[in-house]
């Protein structure tokens, strides 16, 4: 295992009870129960599998978050240059990656775990500031994995960049 894989896994650290695996046959992310393995990160980087991570931990914190920009309902391509220019203009600490379906993920990476609710507020504010006119989702989607019945939910994963 290379230091690249370890660094990548460190950036995309999240829930320890579930992760996602892209199923090319169905075109969907399948939630797997259990802890993601370092080999899964390596296989993702090497293009052998698509890996999704649930950003939120059982403690309601996260080390990374993302604005997921989709173009599913619009025929026009996403204007990546315009989004990148606005990210630079506002000096936002976001890393943009193109998704396999032609969308974009704008990742925010932290140096320490922050409350998921705080990350959601920040990313929502930045999404509005960037004036993104496409359908978006904010990850983490949940601010807590504890359900009203006291059980722990698996959470929603986001497919990682390559």
Describe this structure in words.
Helix content is 25%, strand content 30%. The model has no long low-confidence stretch (mean pLDDT 92). It has 162 residues and is an alpha+beta fold. It has helices at 3-11, 38-45, 80-89, 116-129, and strands at residues 18-23, 28-33, 51-53, 61-70, 95-98, 104-115, 135-139, 158-159. Strands 2-1-3-8 form a 4-stranded antiparallel β-sheet, with helices on one face. The protein has a 4-stranded antiparallel β-sheet with strand order 5-6-4-7, with helices on one face. The protein is globular, with a radius of gyration of 16 Å. The two termini are 17 Å apart.
Q: Please state the average pLDDT score.
A: 92
> What would you call the structural class?
alpha+beta
Quote the beta fraction. 25-35%
What's the order of the H and E elements?
HEEHEEHEEHEE
Helix content, binned percent:
25-40%
Q: Which parts are unreliable, with pLDDT below 50 for 5 consecutive residues or more?
A: none
Number of strands: 8
């Amino acid at each position: 295992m290379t230091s690249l894989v370890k660094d990548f896994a460190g950036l995309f650290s999240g829930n320890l009870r579930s992760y996602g695996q892209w199923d090319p046959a169905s075109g969907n992310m399948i939630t797997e129960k259990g802890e993601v393995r370092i080999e899964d990160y390596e296989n993702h980087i090497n293009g052998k599998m698509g890996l999704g991570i649930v950003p939120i931990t059982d403690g309601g914190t996260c080390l990374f978050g993302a604005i997921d920009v989709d173009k599913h309902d619009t025929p026009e391509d996403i204007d990546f240059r315009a989004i990148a220019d606005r990210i630079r203009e506002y000096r936002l600490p976001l890393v943009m990656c193109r998704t396999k379906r032609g969308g974009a993920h704008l990742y925010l990476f932290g140096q320490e775990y922050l409350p998921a609710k705080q990350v959601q507020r920040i990313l929502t504010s930045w999404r509005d500031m960037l004036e993104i006119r496409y359908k978006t989702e904010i990850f983490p989607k949940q601010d807590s994995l504890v359900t009203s019945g006291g059980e722990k939910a698996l959470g929603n994963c986001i497919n990682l960049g390559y």
